[in-house]
Amino acid sequence: MNKQQEIATFLHEPTEEALDKLWEEDELLVWIDWREYEEDLIDYFNDHLSETTKIVCEVKEIDKPRGVDIVLTSKEKSMTIPFADDKTDRDSAIRAMQEMIAPHHQIRWFMESLGGDTLAFVLLSAEQWDELEQQFGKKKVQFYFQVITNDSVMFDMDMEELNAKMQARDQS
């Protein structure tokens, strides 16, 4: 079964058993711990891209409190991840990776990992996500697999934001 089919199977009947099966799919989920180095998570996503679409990640030492810049490059574009002056962070790195692979691919946050210190993501082609949304409805797909946008906050949520997001999901 390919990645899209695995997600379709889960969305068809999102039971605890189906969720457990999805958790075990090493080839589907990209797991990122809050302690990961940002350049490592770029490699994790690259593992899910073809050789021709992989993103080159270059770490450059700089004279700012965060100590490094991370430059991402593809055949089509290049960008420096827009970190704060004092630190690097996973959210900015994931948003930048999403920007680099768009519009052909999308990273989505698997929302069942919400609340953990290790979050799960899925990278598919934009076409595959569109097909899943046509088959199961945009609302259902995005309930479980949230689109990464320029405003997405995943790791840097405070407890109030996290609890509000979890409560909103419980009420849906």
- Specify the structural class: alpha+beta
Number of domains: 1
The tally of beta strands, per DSSP, is 7
Strand portion: 15-25%
What does this molecule look like?
The chain is of the alpha+beta class and 172 residues long. Helix content is 41%, strand content 22%. The chain has one domain (3-171). Helix 5 (126-136) packs across helix 6 (138-144). The mean pLDDT is 94.
In terms of topology, how is this protein built?
Elements (H helix, E strand, L loop, with lengths): L2 H10 L3 H8 L5 E5 L4 H9 L9 E6 L6 E6 L4 E3 L9 H12 L3 E6 L7 E8 H11 L1 H7 E3 L11 H13 L1
Antiparallel strand pairs: 1-6, 2-3, 3-4, 5-6, 5-7
Helix pairs in contact: 1-5, 3-4, 5-6
What keyword list fits this structure?
about 170 residues; alpha+beta; three-stranded antiparallel β-sheet; about 20% strand; globular
Structure, briefly:
The protein has seven helices and seven strands, in the order H-H-E-H-E-E-E-H-E-E-H-H-E-H. It has 172 residues and is an alpha+beta fold.
